[in-house]
Specification:
The structure holds four protein chains of four kinds. Chain A has ten helices and ten strands. Helix content of chain A is 38%, strand content 25%. By secondary structure, chain A is α/β, with parallel strands linked by helices. Chain B is an alpha/beta fold. Chain B folds into two domains: 201 residues, Rossmann fold, CATH 3.40.50.2300; 165 residues, Rossmann fold (3-Layer(aba) Sandwich), CATH 3.40.50.2300. Chain B starts with a helix and ends in a 19-residue tail after the last strand. By secondary structure, chain C is an all-alpha fold. Helix content of chain C is 73%, strand content 3%. Chain C has twelve helices and two strands, in the order H-H-H-H-H-E-E-H-H-H-H-H-H-H. Chain C has a two-stranded antiparallel ribbon with strand order 1-2. Chain D has a two-stranded antiparallel sheet. Chain D starts with a helix and ends with a helix. The chains are: A alpha/beta, B alpha/beta, C mainly alpha, D mainly alpha. At the A-C interface, loops of A face loops of C.
């Protein structure tokens, strides 16, 4: 299996704040990788850098061997590298089905497709994916009327609708009812195994990330602190110190 | 929800049908005229002057026995709409007056631009309109048959001033500075000035067009100061006149002759006092002219009655508006009929004198029997009045030229 | 196009001076707008109408025989209450809503007040005479109306006074705190409702001062407010919120730009130039930010 | 199409076609209603569906108006002579010239504003929120001021539109001709807009409104959609402008063509009143607004702006979602917002 994402010595500063400093990491195709670190350690900034929300100051990012650090957001997304957000972002005035439909792979956006009636298969596919995340019954409700947890699930379904090659998940279980968490873990593993989507997951819930990831990176103060298998990370005292705030 | 849409659609239809009260052209003993005037928006000053003129005339005519047609006496009544100083709106309202309200006789709106917007409508519907405030010359070149204007065309407003300046210069051409608002009326005044300049071999050294939302003329006046023209002509409705005087005084710009429009509507002599002194103003009418009629008497009487009614002396916009109704009355009585064609023909043959001046329409509906007057603001011990200086027949005073410089005033 | 200004350089001095004096007056209006925009996140389209209303107060003092310059004292007091009333009756319902709602609602206020002014003050264009005379410079070739100089000075005095007030007084500090973080201020015991009302009142009072100055330098009419609104927008957008020196500077910049545009492009394009400048600045900043993949917020 | 739908479209069609015979006195009023409906519908593409509240769409209306008449005149006569001296010279179109000119004029009145929209779209549509609103406001006003300074199109004096040719029937025919043209245009506009709201394009517009960043993150080049949306608006607005100019017969830069303070604001109000972001909202809004305005407004005589101001304030404060939005809040199930209780199978898997 090849390397799907490579982050090479990336720097990102906001004014005087060094959000990312010399961060390098690689993600293998088909794997699930965890990204952990205390609050403010630059995890979300790294996500933003990868998907092009802001330009990086230095370094380069490769997706499937292609340099993407200068590309705009939609272009990167079209390559098949997608992210979800910590605070959910859904189209709140559209219903769930419409949310799904609009998220379908924009690769097919020819003039004809854009102005033609939406094909039945797409609707079917949307419904199936909504079934997959357990929102089928609410498919006709406005997305804005769903609960936070349901919105997270919808966002996941929308990402799947887009058929990405790799998915960056920003705290997929935060704010979700603990009884549902196992279900989400199962689903993410299924996404990885069945759909073949590489996952890079930011997660604070150690139980979740331990049971998901095959490899983990830990950020602290914008720098890469440690990397390794979950076991190695769990026992790395630097990681524990970082979380406990010991310098 | 479908039912909602349905009911709304139905309701819309019904409301549209009943949304307007019907006015008949002649009902009982009233003759109803229609008018769209600017009660709001940038022309509201003169829109109100126009309406006041109409109202005063109606009141007077009705008091004095009304209009006698076929041995019966009728009273005038006007249906007003507010055109919001907007030509598009005015055209729509004219159509509404004619089609929905059944108006057969129209009065004009205020300003050339709006008259231009209304004229095609009245013309197409063959509804005669006597208008008192649309001076644009292009109104009279379109071959309109149902449009009659009691006022002289806009291009004549300031031509006289140029002629006067040339005459004062010993017949040689003068250097002219122009500042005209970007609207139909002022641009027409400009045409007159440009033609006069060509005719007299004068040179135009400044040609500024003022925006409609004018509030500052400092740049134009600074140019005037630098280039020292022989005559400065300004036209920009009331606001233009007031702004020009204010800034001329403030910036101490010396110019031998200053000619403008809308001095009386802007109450220049009252508002600016001695600062406005020596300004030459073009007007359609002045109270000291010696015309008279049976309804208002002479100009002085009109001035007195108007002031008693509305609290301030009448600008010419009011006088010409009043005259429009006298024309209507005269035409109805001569036609002795309410048929629009007959009334139109009677209007075309109008030849009368009113307190405002002689009225006789050319083939194109323009009043050709009345000259423009030029007055100059003159002050005497702090009290400023408008004195007629041209034409000489009515001149109550001799023109002061050149205007003394600010340091000597 | 007219290049007279390049042939007679003295006109440049005149244009610059006119522009600076005019700009300071605009800056005063803009400062009020920046204040309430910053504090309440409201864009007030009725700003120009508040200015004109303030001007009419000075004008009525003038017709009653009082020198209109005293308007700068009376007008803000009355206008403060007008602003306060507007806040309590309408603005408080749009404060925490979408900006578009506030734009439309204040647009409603704007045409409503125009119309009411037309009824109350009459449709005539009016001026108030200050008889302040004129200052002549450079051998009479540059003339500055004292009324304009007076306006500029008053604008500066009021602006400085306001800055001091914001820094020193309790209410001023509460306003500044609210503008930085309304929720935090609320938690710390600031009565934000009162702060909002006061801010809108102060904004209206500043408009009142500016209006009185306009009454003695330009003309008043119920329907001439919009240009003042638009200019204050421009100034605020260039300068940013709540930064007085920047507001003053961009006000002066706009004034000078307008005068030069008037000379070079012709008076008829003066207003178009102002509006196009607004568009150009916004679009320029949008492209600049889009390089950072950000947008104007 | 459901039975109710057929009834509604049928009724509108019957009303639209029959109106000139049923209510001959109201022909112009109803023509203007159709124009207003176009204004509201096209504004709603930006303001309602895309979330870009434009105050400057009047730009395209004005351009369309000027382009149409300039083409009508310029095809047969020198335009500068026609407009010089405030239109004193009169030229007469023959019947065939008139209709030939009008056809080309109307087509270009759609195309040229669309091109303008495409050209300025990239710069302007990169602005968001109130910056977009203010910027478009600036463009709308500037356009009127600039048009007022261009001599070729009559500057501040305005421009007379070619008069109806003599000899083919008088006023009645003319007003009927324009009436049906307006009705045809509004019908086409409505159907086109109805269609695009059902496609992916419409969904993307809504997505941009709800969360543009998300749409970009999902790989949608939002700028392209925004520009195309604006171009569609501009096209129909331009045609509406060309029609309106011909119906009025006289064009003036700031009051008729680039009439930001009247039509420019009305289009926003009508869409909001009816319910922005819905297909029928602007149509209903236009009808209600026009009836209110023509029915009651003109009798206020001078007070109508007080009424309009109060109306605006009341609408935006109390009914920001408009008539359709209000209905949707009240009867969400009628708009299909239901939880599908029947199918519980899907739920089982997760819990």
């Amino acid at each position: 299996m090849g390397i799907i994402l490579e982050v090479d010595q990336v720097y990102k500063h906001f004014g005087g704040v060094k959000a990312n400093e010399n961060v390098s990491l690689t993600v293998e195709e088909g794997s699930i990788v965890g990204l952990i670190g205390p609050n403010g350690s630059g995890k979300t900034t790294l996500f933003n850098s990868i998907v092009g929300t802001h330009p990086i100051d230095q370094g380069s990012i490769y997706f499937e061997g292609r340099e993407i650090s200068a590309l705009p957001v939609p272009a990167i997304a079209k390559l098949g590298l997608l992210r979800t957000f910590q605070q959910t972002r859904i189209y709140e005035k559209l219903n769930c089905i419409q949310n799904m439909l609009v998220s379908s792979k924009p690769e097919n956006d020819t003039v004809y497709n854009v102005f033609a009636k939406i094909p039945e298969e797409l609707t079917e596919k949307s419904e199936n994916l909504l079934k997959f995340v357990g929102l089928y019954q609410k498919r006709n409700l406005r997305a804005g009327d769903l609960s936070f947890g349901q919105q997270k699930l919808l966002e996941l379904a929308m990402a799947l609708m887009n058929e990405p090659k790799m998915l960056l998940l920003d705290e997929p279980t935060a704010g979700i009812n603990p009884t549902l968490i196992n279900g989400i873990i199962d689903r993410l593993i299924k996404v990885n195994k069945e759909f073949g989507i590489t996952l890079l997951v930011i997660e604070h819930n150690m139980r979740v990330i331990m049971s998901l990831a095959q490899k983990m990176f830990c950020l602290a103060h914008g720098q890469l602190l440690a990397e390794g298998t979950p076991e190695e990370i769990k026992n790395d005292h630097r990681v524990i110190d970082a979380y406990l705030g010991v310098q | 929800m479908r039912n909602f849409k349905l009911s709304i659609a139905l309701l819309s239809g019904l409301l549209l049908v009943f949304s307007s009260l019907a006015f008949a052209k002649v009902e009982g003993d009233t003759i109803t005229l229609g008018a769209a005037v600017s009660l709001t928006g940038k022309y509201s000053t003169n829109g109100k002057n126009t309406k006041n003129g109409y109202e005063l005339a109606i009141k007077r005519i009705n008091e004095m026995g009304g209009v006698k047609v076929g041995g019966k006496s009728y009273k005038f009544k006007i249906v007003y709409y507010d055109d919001e100083s907007n030509g598009g709106r005015a055209a729509q309202l004219a159509e509404r007056l004619i089609k929905q309200d059944g108006i057969k006789y129209m009065l004009g709106p205020y300003s050339s631009g709006i008259t231009k917007a209304i004229a095609p409508v009245t013309e197409e519907n063959k509804i005669p309109m006597v208008e008192a405030n649309g001076a644009s010359r292009s109104l009279f070149t379109k071959g309109y048959k149902y449009l009659f204007a009691v006022l002289s065309a806009a291009n004549q407003y300031l031509e006289v001033a140029i002629d006067l300046a040339v005459e004062r210069n010993g017949g040689k051409g003068v250097r002219i500075a122009m500042a005209f608002e970007q609207d139909a009326f002022s641009q027409d005044v400009k045409i007159g000035v440009v033609e006069a300049a060509k005719r007299t071999g004068s040179e135009i050294v400044i040609d500024d067009n003022l925006p409609k939302e004018l509030n500052d003329m400092a740049a134009t006046l600074a140019k005037v100061k630098a280039l020292k023209p022989d005559v400065l002509v300004v036209s920009g409705h009331t606001k233009g006149a007031l702004t020009a005087i204010r800034q001329l005084a403030d910036m101490r710009v010396n110019v031998p002759m200053l000619a403008m429009t809308h001095c009386d509507a802007g109450k220049l002599s009252k508002q600016h006092g001695e600062k406005a002194e020596y300004a030459l103003c073009a007007a359609q009418w002045h109270k000291s002219l010696t015309y008279k009629d049976n309804f208002f008497g002479n100009g002085m009487d009109y001035d007195r009655d108007y002031t008693a009614e509305y609290g301030s002396p009448p600008p010419y916009q009011s006088a010409e508006s009043s005259a429009a109704l006298l024309v209507w009355k005269d035409a109805f009585e001569r036609a002795n009929s309410f048929d629009t064609e007959k009334v139109r023909d009677a209007l075309a043959k109008t030849n009368m004198q009113t307190f405002y001046g002689n009225i006789k329409f050319s083939d194109t509906g323009q009043n050709i029997a009345k000259p423009m007057v030029l007055f100059q603001v003159r002050c005497d011990g702090g009290k400023c009045t408008n004195k007629v200086v041209a034409p000489t027949k009515w001149a109550s005073t001799k023109i002061v030229h050149p205007i003394p410089s600010w340091s000597q005033r | 196009m007219d290049f007279l200004i390049f042939k007679a350089p003295i006109l440049m001095v005149q244009a610059s001076m006119d522009g600076i004096l005019l700009g300071l007056l605009f800056a005063l209006i803009a400062y009020g707008m920046a204040l309430q925009w910053g504090v309440m996140n409201i864009i007030n389209i009725a700003q120009g109408e508040l200015v004109i209303m303030g001007g009419y107060i000075a004008y009525f003092m003038y017709t009653a025989g009082i020198h209109p310059a005293f308007g700068i004292i009376v007008s803000p007091i009355i206008m403060y209450f007008v602003g306060w009333f507007l806040y309590k009756s309408i603005i408080n319902r749009v404060v925490e809503r979408d900006l578009f709602i506030s734009i439309l609602a204040t647009f409603g206020i704007s045409i409503l007040t125009q119309q009411l002014m037309n009824f109350v003050f009459g449709a005539d264009v009016v001026v108030a005479q200050s008889n302040f005379g004129t200052t002549l410079l450079f051998d009479d070739s540059v003339t500055l109306p004292n009324a304009k100089i007076f306006s500029a000075l008053v604008s500066i005095v009021f602006a400085v006074a306001l800055v001091l007030y914001m820094k020193k007084s309790r209410l001023g500090r509460a306003i500044r705190a609210t503008s930085q973080n309304p929720r935090a201020a609320k938690i710390l015991g600031v009565d934000t409702e009162k702060v909002y009302a006061a801010t809108f009142g102060i904004n209206a009072a500043l408009c009142g001062v500016a209006g009185s100055l306009i009454a003695i330098t330009f003309t008043l009419h119920p329907y001439v407010g919009l240009p003042y609104t638009v200019r204050s927008f421009m100034i605020v957008i260039i300068a940013g919120l709540g930064n007085l020196p920047a507001v003053a500077l961009s006000g002066v910049g706009l004034g000078v730009f307008e005068e030069f545009a008037d000379y070079i492009l012709g008076t008829e394009f003066r207003i178009a130039a102002v509006f196009l400048l607004l568009v150009v600045i916004l679009v320029y900043r949008r492209f600049k930010l889009s390089k950072k993949r950000e947008y104007l917020k | 199409m459901s039975k109710n739908n057929i009834i509604i479209y049928g009724l509108i069609l019957v009303f639209g076609i029959g109106a000139p015979f049923l209510f001959p006195a109201y022909k112009l009023q109803i023509s203007i209603l159709w124009i207003l409906t176009i204004l509201a519908l096209t504004w709603d593409i930006q303001g309602g569906q895309m979330g870009y509240n434009s105050f400057g769409n009047i730009l395209f209306f004005g351009i369309g108006m000027y382009v149409c008449s300039s083409v009508q005149i310029g095809m047969f006569f020198p335009l500068s002579e026609w407009t010089a001296s405030g239109g004193e010279k009169t030229f007469l179109h023959t019947t065939s010239q008139y209709f030939e000119g009008f056809t080309y004029g109307l087509i270009l009145a759609g195309i040229i504003p669309a091109i303008v929209a495409a050209l300025i779209g990239y710069g302007i549509l990169g602005l968001r929120g109130h910056y977009f609103a203010i910027c478009t406001l600036g463009i709308g006003i500037a356009a009127g001021e600039i048009a007022g300074g261009i001599e070729l199109i009559g500057a501040g004096q305005g421009m007379t539109v070619p008069p109806w040719p003599k000899g083919i029937g008088g006023t009645e025919l003319r007003s009927q001709f324009f009436y049906y043209l307006c009705f045809l245009t509004v019908s086409i506009t409505f159907l086109v807009i109805k269609w695009i709201y059902q496609t992916r394009f419409g969904l993307v517009l809504n997505a941009i409104r709800d969360n543009e960043d998300k749409a970009e993150a999902m790989g949608i080049h939002t700028m392209r959609y925004k520009i195309i949306g604006w171009v569609v608006s501009a096209f129909f607005l331009g045609i509406a402008g060309g029609l309106m100019g011909n119906m009025i017969g006289y064009i003036e830069p700031t009051e008729i063509a680039f009439a930001g303070s009247t039509y420019g604001v009305f289009m926003v109000l009508m869409a909001i009143l009816g319910g922005k972001g819905t297909l029928w909202g602007p149509v209903i809004g236009a009808a209600v607004f026009h009836i209110f305005k023509e029915g009651f407004w003109t009798f206020f005589l001078g007070w109508q702006y007080v009424a309009l101001g109060a109306l605006i304030i009341v609408i935006v404060i109390f009914f920001p979602e408009g008539i359709m939005g209000w209905l949707r809040e009240k009867y969400p199930h009628r708009f299909g917002e239901v939880v599908d209780e029947a199918d519980r199978t899907a739920q089982v898997e997760l819990t």
